[in-house]
Hints:
By secondary structure, this protein is of the alpha+beta class. The protein folds into 3 domains: 4-203, Jelly Rolls (Sandwich); 219-283; 293-665, TIM Barrel (Alpha-Beta Barrel). It is built from 9 helices and 32 strands. The strands form 7 sheets. Strands 21, 24, 25, 26, 27, 28, 29, 30, 31 and 32 form a 10-stranded mixed beta sheet that branches. Strands 2-11-8-13-6-5 form a 6-stranded antiparallel beta sheet. α4 runs parallel beside α5. Residues 1-22 have low confidence and may be disordered.
Amino acid sequence: MNPSLTRCSAFGLTLLVATTAPAQSSLKLSSLTPGTEWTTTVTNGDFQAPGPLVGCWHPNPTGWSGFGEMSADPGTNLVRADQGVVAKGYASGGNPVGLLQRRVTLEPAMDYVLSAYLWNFGNAANYVHTVVDFNDVPDEPQLTLYANQPAADQGYFVYRYFSTATTGTNLTLRVFYDGLTGTGAAPDYFPLVAQWDNIAITKASSFALPQTNSMVALSLTASGNDGVLTWPTSPLELKPQWTPNIATPLPWTPLTNAVAHSNDQNTATLSQSAGTRFFSLADAVDTSTLNRKMLLGYQGWFACPGDGSPVNAWIHWFRSQTPTAANATVDFLPDISELDADELFATSMTLSNGTPLRVYGTAQQKTVLRHFQWMRDYGIDGVFLQRFTSELGNPTFAAWRNQVTSNVWAGAEAYGRVFAIMYDISGQPASTLVSTLTNDWTFLVNTMKVTSSPRYQRHRGKPLVAIWGFGFTDRPGTPQDALTVINQFKAAGFTVMGGVPTYWRTLNNDSQSDPAWANVYRAFDIISPWAVGRYGDQAGADNFKQTLITPDLALARSLGLDYMPVIFPGFSWHNLFPTSPLNQIPRNAGNFYWRQAYNAVSAGCTMVYGAMFDEMDEGTAMLKLAPTAAELPAQGTFVPLNIDGTNLPSDWYLRLAGAATRMLRGDSPLTAGRPRNP
Length: 678
C-alpha cells in the first residue's frame, strides 16, 4: 500500500469532539464539509483509476478485484470532496452480493482508523447493506450503512478505530453489499443499490474528523463604481479569499481589504479596477501549519472549591486553602465583568466596595469557551495547552487536566481556533520522565483522541506536540532521555517542538553544557527558546534580537528546523516570591510587548509563541485584566494595568496580540511603534 496523507482546505464550524469510539460512528455528509478530514486514502480508494471497460462496466478498478454487479462509475448524490468516480453496486440481475477487494499491509501493533463515504439507496421494502470491512480477522472492523438510516441516499462519513495488534497486518479490505431484500433499491434509484468512496486507513495519530458544515451566503453587489462583498457573522471566523480564475487547483489569495461589521453582517468594499475575481470564504485559522501564526500558552491551571473540578480546591490562586491576601500567589487579577455568577467563586478578600473578590476555575467549560470567544473576537489564532507532567501521577490532578483539555478542545472547535498540547516537565522525577511522557501522549492520542479534532494544530503534515524543559540546568532528564522521547514521538507520526533554553545554540547559561544536548536540540522539528525574564526593557529586547534571535534563526534554518521565538508583555511574581519586586519588568503600556513582536517579525520569524494567555502568577497574562486599583482587592498588593501611568482598557493586551498577529501574517504593515489604538 502506498497511501497519501491528504488535507483539503475548506471552512466549517466544528463542534465534533470524539471520545472513545463505539464499533463505528456515522456522520451525515450533509452535516459536514467533506474533504476537511485528515485521512490516508488506500491506493485507488477514491476509484479515480476505474480500470478497463468491460461492456458498459468498470468491474475491476485498478488494484481491486471482485464479483457481482460492481463498477467504478460517475457517482450519484456526490459531495464536494468526491472527484467524480466512485464504486457503485447494482442489483439489476438480483445478485445477493456484490464485492470489490484488495490486499493492504499495515504496521504491526499500531492503532488505525478505517473510514469511508457510504451511500445506501434502499427503502423500507427494498434494500441492501452497504459495507466496508476486513475479511475474516479477529474483532473484525466493519463499517455498515443501512437503508433505514435518515438520508442514507445522501451519504455518510463512517469511521471506526482498530488495532493491528488484534487484526494482524496483512489484510483483505472489502467493499461490498449484501442482505438483498426486494429489488435492493428504492424505485428512483434502481438498479443502483449502494455506493462507496474515499476508502481510507489512517494511523490514529494522524486522523482528524471533518469539520461540520457551516454554509454561509456570500454576496457581491454593485455600489457606484465599486463592489461590496457581504456575508453574515458566524461563531467560526471566516475570511474572504479571491482567485483570478477557477482553474484546479484554485490559487486562492486572502483578501486584505478592510472589513466592516454592522448588524451581524460583514462587508468589504472592492475596487472594480482590480479586474476579474472570484470570491469564497475560508476558515480564518488554517490548522495545517504554524507558519504566520501566533499561539499563546494556556496554563488552564486555576481551580476553586465548588468549581466542579476533581481537585475541588484553591489551585494557583493561593498557596493554601485559606483564600486571603497573605496567601495569594498571583500578581494580576482577571477582569470578571463578563463572567456569569455560576462561573465565579468567592475568596476571603474584598473589593473597596466591600463585596467579595471572586475568581474563576478552568473546570468550568463556559469560562474556557469564553476565553476562546475572546481569541476569536481579537484575532488570536489559538493556544498551546500546558500539560504538567509532575501532576499526572496523581489521579485527581490527571482527571482535572483531562477535564481542562476537553474544555480547550470544545472552545477551539466552537470558535474556530487551534490548539496543541505542550508538556512542561518542571518538577518531574527523572526516573519516570520518559514513561510519563510516552504513556500520557499515548493516552491523549489513542484514548482521548485529541489529535482527531479538526482544530488540533498540525505542521509539516503531522499533528504537533511540544515538550518544554529539556536541557535546562534546573529541569530533569538526560540527553538520552530526551532523544528517546523525541524519536518515539516522531516515529509515531508527530511533529515535535522543543521549548528549549535561551542558550541552546551555545550550550551555556541556562542550558546544560554537555555537548550531547546539541544533538537533542537538533532532533526537534521546531526550536522555541525561552525568553521570559531574559531582558527587561526595549533596549534589552533589541539586543536580544541581535545577539540571539537573528543567529538562532540562521542556524535553525541551516539545519532545516523551524524557529518560534517567545515574546511576553512584562513580568511580576511578587506574591509568589515576596522578595521579588512588584512589577519587576514593567509592561510600559504595551510598548515592551510590541517591540518584541516587531523584532521577531523583522528578523524574519514566521511563527511566534506568546507567553501567556492566563499566567497571572508570573504576570505575563494577556487575557482581560483588572485595569485599575478599583477592580482589585482592598487587601494585599497587586498590579493594575495602569501601574505604569497609562490608563488602559482591560482588553488592551488581547488587542495588541491580535494586532501583532496581523503584522506577523502580513495583513498590516511592519511597524516598530506600538499602534495607538489596536
